[in-house]
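agent> Task received from the user: take the single chain below, predict its 3D structure, and emit structure tokens. No templates, no multimer pairing.
agent> Plan: (1) validate residues, (2) run structure prediction, (3) serialize to tokens, (4) report one or two observations.
agent> Step 1 OK, no nonstandard residues flagged.
tool_call: predict_structure(input=
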Amino acid sequence: MAALTSGYSNNAPSPPTTTEEKESIPSLAQDAYSLLSEQDAKMMELGDFIAELRDLDLRTAVIDEILGYMVSNNWVQLWIWKGTEETWINIVE
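)
tool_result: status=success, residues=93
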């Protein structure tokens, strides 16, 4: 249960996305897709992918919206690598 709340005891959750941020989600999602497509296997460990997006100064709520947009438009899929239990993201082809 601690994993579900880690960070919230020390840091407040990211505020919801603003209207301006919501309007930029499609463009940011295209940038994120390009980042993922540059990888050799067109996949990354999800934590590494999120770290790359954070390097672009994106807030957690915006990253969540980007991931949701990419998944709901069937651009990417998320999956668990058996044995390591790491979550990965890859481009749907």
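agent> Step 4: summary for the user.
The chain has one domain: 20-91.
agent> Done.
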